[in-house]
Each structure stands twice: as structure tokens, then as C-alpha cells.
């Protein structure tokens, strides 16, 4: 194995064009870490925010973008249990996934589900960690409850629809075209709402309100989400595509006993992420291996075309996940 590797670096804050191929030293695993030879890396919106200078990686993380990958473990650091060289894994990463090799805590690795290719497995960690921790742990979604996810055709949305449906919830989703709405319905959404043509607030009110809403839009959606919630409903916020600041009537939160919460995944502790991995392995991996849940794939780009992948993602026309082939 060479001491240097190809990687995509952010040359300066800016648009997709600032992503450039460079040579970097191959990192060496420390205590509790594994080194993965990357086959595919997932492309996610936090990568674009980092590229634009709006999302700083934690001080201990690689400055290279990339928060998930699938590949083969090629080196194991001290104090690693349960993994060995040659194991195929998909992994949540602190950063650095847009490269030929990447480090991650061994507890953030999961086995590639039986029967699944590495290309699909690379799409699992970021979205499944995010959806599981926010919809089921933080949001407490239960069978029979009414669940609304915005951005239903995104990587997060397609994952949330499938998991909520698999665990017995009534699923509603918003999306911006009939094509995207149809995908949501095929994945298990009882109703897909084209937000350009219908008001999700009225749709959900007619159904008695949402017990849980997962939102990454923010902005004008925030007061509308509050209106769409049922008594004692919960709103979980995971991003702000329209911005985080808005005028909001908090009296409704008191009067209807609503819960408003949210989280980001990357800054959480290694232990917190390890616990999510354990829950996914126990409760979700059997669904993946049984074919009840699967990642929705949009497109694949080479590492050299990372800028094109970012342009596609920010354009919003994609359905499901985008990956880089390393």
C-alpha cells in the first residue's frame, strides 16, 4: 500500500468548482480506529455546506469532505474488537470519505448487509443514523401514529418513509413534482403531497394532525409545521434549507402540549454514535437483509467528478442518494 492517496479537497470556500483532486498522506489508525479502503463514498448536504464554508468539521476530524463510505478494512488500530483486516463494512465517518482511504472509530462501522453491493451500502450510514436517531429515538415514533416527512424524495426522506412504514406508522410526505411524489408512494407513503400544488397543513389537519414531523426545510415551514401537528405532537428539526429564523407563536406549543426538538449528527460523541450503530444492527439491518428496506439510488460519479455530484445535489432534481466511486 502506498503512503499517498488520491482525495478530494476543498481548495477554498465556494461553489462545487472548489472541489479538486489532490494527493494526501494515507492516515494511520489510532486507538479504537480502523483504516478503510474506500470503494464508494456517499454525497450528502453537509458536505456541500462544509464546501461553502458554512459547516466546520470538528477539530479532531479530517478537513476532507465525506461522512459515509463502504469498503474494506485494511488496517486496525490498537483496542479494536470485532473487526479485522479484510472485513467489508459501511461506516459513518467524522470526515474524509472523499478519498481512497479513510479513518473512523471501529464502533461506527456496520457490516455490509447480506446480498447488498458496496455501492448501495455506502448510502446507508449517514441517512440511517440520522433517521433512526431523530425519528425513533428522539421523535419516539410508534406504530399507528401519523408521520410526516418533508423532502420525501431525498436520501433522508426515502429512508424515513421506508422505516416508518416498516414499523407500522401512517406515512405522509411532501415533494416537489409528481414523479417524486410517486416514488414516495411506492416506498410506502399513504399520501404524497406536491407542495407546489397543495397545502400540507390542510392535508394533515384533515387526517387529525401529525403525531410526528421530520423537517429539514425550516423557514416558512416552521409555523406551518406547528399548525399541522396533532395534540401532543412532536416536531424534529434536522436542517434549515430555508433558514433557521422565523416568527413563531409559542402559545400553540403550550396549549396543544407540543414538543419541538432537533439534532445534528456530526458533533455528537463517539459513544452516542456507537449506540446508534448498535440499535441499527439489531433493529434495522434485518429489514435491509430481508429486502423490506433498501437505499434509493440516484446516480454515481467518479471521485474526479465530485464537483458534478455536488452541482446535481444542490440543483435538487435527484431522487435518493448520490455516490462517488473511488
Query: Can you count the beta strands?
Result: 15
First-to-last CA distance: 16 Å
- Helix and strand run: EEEHEEEEHHEHEHEHEHEHEHHEHE
- When the domains are counted, the total is 2
State the secondary-structure class: alpha/beta
Helix content: 25-40%
Structural account:
With 326 residues, the chain is of the alpha/beta class. The chain has 2 domains: 4-124 and 268-325, Alpha-Beta Complex (Quinone Oxidoreductase, Chain A, domain 1); 128-262, NAD(P)-binding Rossmann-like Domain (Rossmann fold), CATH 3.40.50. 29% of the residues lie in helices and 28% in strands. The protein is built from 11 helices and 15 strands. The chain has helices at residues 45-51, 118-121, 125-138, 155-166, 178-187, 200-206, 221-228, 251-255, 270-283, 285-289, 306-315, and strands at 4-10, 19-25, 33-43, 68-76, 88-92, 101-105, 109-111, 146-149, 170-175, 191-194, 210-215, 229-237, 259-262, 297-302, 321-325. Strands 3, 4, 5, 6, 7, 14 and 15 form a 7-stranded mixed beta sheet that branches. Strand 11 (210-215), helix 7 and strand 12 (229-237) form a beta-alpha-beta unit. The chain starts with a strand and ends with a strand. The relative contact order is 0.15.
Write the layout of secondary structure elements.
Elements: E1 4-10, E2 19-25, E3 33-43, H1 45-51, E4 68-76, E5 88-92, E6 101-105, E7 109-111, H2 118-121, H3 125-138, E8 146-149, H4 155-166, E9 170-175, H5 178-187, E10 191-194, H6 200-206, E11 210-215, H7 221-228, E12 229-237, H8 251-255, E13 259-262, H9 270-283, H10 285-289, E14 297-302, H11 306-315, E15 321-325
Helix pairs in contact: 3-4, 3-9, 6-7
Amino acid at each position: 500500500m502506498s503512503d499517498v492517496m488520491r482525495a478530494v479537497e476543498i481548495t477554498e470556500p465556494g461553489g462545487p468548482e472548489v472541489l479538486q483532486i489532490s494527493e494526501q498522506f494515507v492516515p494511520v489508525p489510532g486507538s479504537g480506529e480502523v483504516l478503510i479502503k474506500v470503494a464508494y463514498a456517499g454525497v450528502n448536504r453537509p458536505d456541500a455546506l462544509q464546501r461553502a464554508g458554512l459547516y466546520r468539521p470538528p477539530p479532531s476530524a479530517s478537513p476532507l469532505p465525506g461522512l459515509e463510505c463502504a469498503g474494506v478494512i485494511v488496517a486496525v488500530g490498537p483496542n479494536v474488537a470485532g473487526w479485522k483486516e479484510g472485513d467489508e463494512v459501511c461506516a459513518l465517518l467524522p470526515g474524509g470519505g472523499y478519498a481512497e482511504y479513510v479513518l473512523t472509530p471501529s464502533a461506527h462501522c456496520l457490516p455490509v448487509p447480506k446480498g447488498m453491493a458496496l455501492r448501495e451500502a455506502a448510502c446507508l450510514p449517514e441517512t440511517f443514523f440520522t433517521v433512526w436517531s431523530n425519528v425513533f429515538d428522539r421523535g419516539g415514533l410508534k406504530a399507528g401514529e401519523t408521520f410526516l416527512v418533508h423532502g420525501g424524495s431525498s436520501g433522508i426522506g426515502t429512508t424515513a418513509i421506508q422505516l416508518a412504514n416498516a414499523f407500522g406508522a401512517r406515512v405522509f410526505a411532501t415533494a416537489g413534482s409528481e414523479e417524486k411524489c410517486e416514488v414516495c408512494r411506492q416506498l410506502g407513503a399513504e399520501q404524497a403531497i406536491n407542495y407546489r400544488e397543495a397545502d400540507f397543513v390542510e392535508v394533515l389537519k384533515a387526517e387529525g394532525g401529525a403525531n410526528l414531523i421530520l423537517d429539514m426545510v425550516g423557514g416558512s415551514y416552521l409555523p406551518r409545521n406547528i399548525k399541522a401537528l396533532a395534540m401532543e405532537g412532536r416536531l424534529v428539526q434536522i436542517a434549515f434549507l430555508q433558514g433557521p429564523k422565523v416568527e413563531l407563536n409559542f402559545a400553540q406549543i403550550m396549549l396543544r402540549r407540543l414538543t419541538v426538538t432537533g439534532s445534528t449528527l456530526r458533533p455528537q460523541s463517539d459513544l452516542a454514535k456507537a449506540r446508534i450503530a448498535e440499535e441499527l444492527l439489531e433493529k434495522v439491518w434485518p429489514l435491509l437483509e430481508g429486502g423490506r428496506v433498501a437505499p434509493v439510488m440516484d446516480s454515481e460519479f467518479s471521485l474526479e467528478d465530485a464537483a458534478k455530484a455536488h452541482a446535481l445535489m444542490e440543483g435538487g432534481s435527484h431522487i435518493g442518494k448520490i455516490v462517488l466511486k473511488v
